[in-house]
Each structure stands twice: as structure tokens, then as C-alpha cells.
């Protein structure tokens, strides 16, 4: 068991305050801080903190896969930690993207290798042969676009906008209000020549402004968040087809503790907020716009799932012990939120510790509120807000208890070894 030093990623869309404040560090920071990675990703592993100095978690696992991961996990996942967990803080929208399925990733990786595209080339889509299911749990209000809205509702949005330039596209959806219609419409938008885009986009943005003005008078809040998002994206990425695509997606605001699960083929873009994110250990992203990075439309179209997503927010499950589980089909990871309190009850007794089972599994704990004591074997380590801790499979009987009046910890672990 060791405290973990995360690997900080500074992207332009990050926040100068959120991650520093979470960790109790001076804020605002000089550069935007976007992500803090806790995992053993070869590109940027976290480090185990010890008196002898920091050790890369990747090296520690390479040296002793069975001791760190446990025999079952080491065997099932090829002696690698199968998940990567992060703090993420977005002050600006991220790119419009989707992730491949396992089969698509294997095939794409092989194809790009055969074509001789260097692994670190900016035009490379598949940097590994793995899928990348993602789960994001909000720590603050968290805005995102996720999955295609039910076409019937999108037709209502188009009707509300009432832009003549949108009429032919509205008809595409009216003729076929399903996944096929969405594919036809999205494909025609994302492949529009720039000249055509430059005619449609300003008209759509104008229509958004007018619709918002009308909403102001009528106090009808329907689609207000959607319209504002389209306008905001239009300012960040003028002339980008992704701005039109945003009209087709569910606009979600998660409250703290709520989650989104982004399975293979789900078109999504994070917009703003702070979150815990966990994913399979992969870097495979296919972008469709809203980014200065590499965009590969044909490849994105190959992996996209156009089936509408009526309710994108994941249903969490409260366990008998009071912890909250975010169930997903991903075997690589599982995430649980544990609320602890040290509050003495009426009988004066403190609350009992939270035990982590089953044994022989690795875990990463992230504390997001208060602080806790983590015990395993004879050792005890304090874990504070904004910090993380690695528990090896060989650490005996780990348990936690609150060191402050109340505390919140996320437990990241492997989903299934079957
Ligand atoms: Zn993603």
C-alpha cells in the first residue's frame, strides 16, 4: 500500500483552479490543469510514494505482477493493470469523439501497422489494440453531449429553430426517424464541403439566438441548454461541422455523483466540469471535430453507433453497505463511491470501518472529500482530499475509516476476471 503521485496532463481545455483546489494547492495555476492520471499507462504512469523515493507503478507491476495485481488479474489481463482512473477538470469543451469496440480496435491497429503509420504519428488513430469504454462520475455539475437524441425530439428542436437552411435536413430525419435517418443526416453534415457549411452554420447560429430570445419572453426552458451549447461551440470552433452535429446529441448536465457510461461507438463531447473518470487502459480516440487535433471522419463513421440513446445517464446502485456502485459491462474496471463518517452515534460509538473485498485484487482509492485512514496488515496511511492510494493485491485485509467528520472515497478496481 502506497500513496500515488498522479501524472498531471496540461491541456488547453483544462482548469487553472479546479484540480489545484481539489488537492489543496495554490490556485489559480500558471497553466491549465486538465487531467491527473492514476494508473500504469506506459505513456504516463503514476508513481508509488515511499521513503526510498518514487517508483513508477508500471515498473512495480512489471517486477511483480502477481504480488501487485493478484494471480487472476495478472493472468486475465496479461500482467497489466487494465484500467486508468483520472481526475478531470474541463473549463472548455473537449473534442467530439467516439471510441472503437475491441474488434474494431484490433482490426484498426493491425491495419495501421501494416500501412506503416508510425505509432506516435499525429494521424495515427489506433495507438493500441484495445477498446476504451469510459465511465465519468461528476464531482461538480458536469455538462456533456452524449449519444444521439431520440429523432422525434430532434425534429422538435429543428422546428423550434425554424431555419430555412435546416429544412432539407429536418426532412431526412422525418422520412426516417431512426438510426438510419441519423446516419444519413450526420454523414451528410460531417462531410459537407466547407463552402456549404459556411452557408448553413451562420443561419443555424442566428436561429439559435432568435430561439433563445423567444424562450426569454415565453419562459419556455425547453432546449435552452442545447441552444446555448451550440452557440458556445460555434464561438470556439467557427466553421466546424461538429457544431451542427451537436444539434443531434443529448445535452446532459450531471449533478455531483451522477455518471455517464460511454460504450464503444457512443458519440460524445465533455463540455465543462470536474469529474472522476475511469477507462480501459487505451488511447484509441476517433475525432469528428471541435478540436485542432487529428480528425478522421471516415474512420469515425465506421465505428459510430447511430442507435438513439433515450436516457444517457447511468443508473447507479446503492449497495447494502451504503456504498454506490456504477455498474457497467466493462471487465477492465469497476467504480464504487464510499461515503464514510466518523460521527459518533447516539451510543457514542464511531462508525465501523469499510472493508474492501474480495481479496487478491489491486485497487486505487481516490479521496474527493474529507480524509480517511487506510489500513492493511499492520500499516496505516492517511489519504486526503485530492490524493490517491495504491493497494496491491498482496496487501492483507484493507479497510478504511473516516478521519474527518465525513469523507468520500472512490474505489477503482477490476470489473471481472472471467
Ligand atoms: Zn471519450
Q: Can you tell me about this structure?
A:
With 418 residues, the protein is of the alpha+beta class. Among the domains are: 1-10 and 44-78 and 316-418, Sandwich (Jelly Rolls), CATH 2.60.120.10; 151-249, no CATH class. Helix content is 28%, strand content 28%. The chain is built from 12 helices and 24 strands. It has helices spanning 18-22, 57-63, 65-69, 71-76, 102-114, 151-161, 167-175, 179-190, 194-218, 224-236, 241-245, 297-303, and strands at residues 2-5, 7-9, 35-39, 47-49, 55-56, 83-90, 96-98, 134-138, 142-148, 249-254, 259-262, 268-280, 286-289, 313-314, 317-318, 324-325, 334-341, 354-355, 363-369, 371-376, 379-384, 388-391, 399-402, 406-413. A 9-stranded antiparallel β-sheet has the order 5-4-1-22-19-24-17-16-15. Strands 2, 3, 6, 8, 9, 10, 11, 12 and 14 form a 9-stranded antiparallel β-sheet that branches. β16 and β17 form a beta hairpin. α6 packs antiparallel against α7 and α7 (167-175) runs antiparallel to α8 (179-190). The longest helix is centred in the middle third of the chain and has 25 residues, at 194-218. The chain starts with a strand and ends in a 5-residue tail after the last strand. The mean pLDDT is 94. The site of zinc ion has 5 residues, from loops.
